[in-house]
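User: structure tokens for this one?
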Amino acid sequence: MLARRLFDPRVLSGYPQVTSAANDIHSVRCRGRALSIDSRIQTGSSEFSDNRQAMLALVERLRTLEARAAQLSEQRRSRFEQRGQLTPRERLARLLDPGMPFLQLHSLAGYLADTEDESKTIPGSSLIAGIGFVSAVRCMVWVDDSGIKAGAMGSETLPAVLSIQRIAMRQKLPLIHLVESAGANLMDYRVEMWAQGGAVFYNLAQLSAAGIPTVALLHGPSTAGGAYMPGLSDYVIGVKKNGMAALAGAALVHAATGEEANDRELGGSEMHASTSGLVEYLAEDDAHGVQIARSVVAGLHWNQRLAVPARSFSEPRYSTDELAGLVPTDYRTPYDVREVVLRLVDDSAFEDFKPAYGIATVCLQASINGIGCGIIGNNGPIDPAGATKAAQFFQLCDQADKPIIFLNNTTGYMVGTQYEQAGMIKHGSKMIQAVSNVKVPRITLYIGASFGAGNYGMSGYAYQPDFVFAWPNATTGVMGGEQAAGTMSMVARGAARRRGQPIDEAAMQAQHDKICELFDRQADAFYTSGRCLDHGVIDPRDSRRVLGFCLQTCIEARHRKLSPNSFGVARG
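Assistant:
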């Protein structure tokens, strides 16, 4: 059964698809090599209005959930003020260059991980992470949200941290960690979290050895395993009176050895700056510490190692705001993915690769912010011709050193006798082989359905794209709930007939409803993002900005020269 499901997203009831080639549904004009295509979307139609209303409701849900962590953390403002501290978000704001973009990552981490009641879930897993500019340097920033459970790790904190470390390594981004955390929650101890948690320190050592600087700023405590956060960072800044790093706090020292210890003598910033040598720079307070961090980053002269040419480009002729009404929130309602692309690419111009062959798989060449790229989207399931076309397209992009953008909206690879005999497994495998081995940057957007092995061929999470984001209407999983329930119903009915038993229709309906709920709940973009199966959920209207930011990040990484060493920087 598993072997069948690999290429079986269950296209059981005729997934609606757009079957017309580009030149049949749009008027086109040649502008140089790319074609400038006229949109046929009627923004004044009731359909557009209904789509927009449904999408904006999902965006509002997203923003409401994201705001919960900030609101909860803010409730402890008075406690921060009593200690003479800035709040975590104030620290972040002072660290980042004013007016420059900040791409937040994993803002929904932990959603519904500890409770099934959405009204009680607090996404974020006690961290704020993202890519932003510090002293004009593009950096990965990680802030412990110590206003929530003293910054103790949540159930999805570790996956989120490992994710941002992988991005920092791949994109050659200096990593800045603003530290204040109670560490692991011992009341929720799980041995696998401890075992896997060592990868955080392993990654810090790997970053340093690769020549990618790491900076830790001790705003508050960092104890037990967390003490290795500054221990394995290249630069450590400690804040007087509050900053602390110790393998065991006073309570644990007393429990383990009977010693009556003092936290400041054990691991205070002042001690580490004068005695242990763990701290390079001693700050008077949080604001001073952030100022020092900015100076450290400026002193790296990081951009001297970068040679990326400036690019000129034209904005799309169609507003990105229209994306909110263009795409139906129900993936079963068809639309032409080219309409999405018109609102993402420069001058709304692209070249359509083999538009009359494998027509449900759309392969385009265009530019975003002046960066040439390949774009693949779906107007339905992927058939053998579509998979063959996609595999060739990926290899051509790799040959031309063009990043590839994947716009996922497919129930997967086609099934049935006709498609099996046409070599669906062989051609689908060819597509997966190509997407697995291209060397160019890959950026994935889940903009609708992304089911079964179609998710794999379209560079889903497991295929380690450079970045992967979801729209709030996206659904991902092995198959849709209705398809899963229908499959299990057929199996159960067949088994009953073979045994000569009557079919209990009430039980069958109960099973159907249970399976639908199980699959559809887990396919929801908020649920999957809560388990760090993407880098975040975004407003569709922000897609061009996010893509442009990510493309530039990838291009910079590939142009940047590092100075690796054998072991990383060892502390004096």
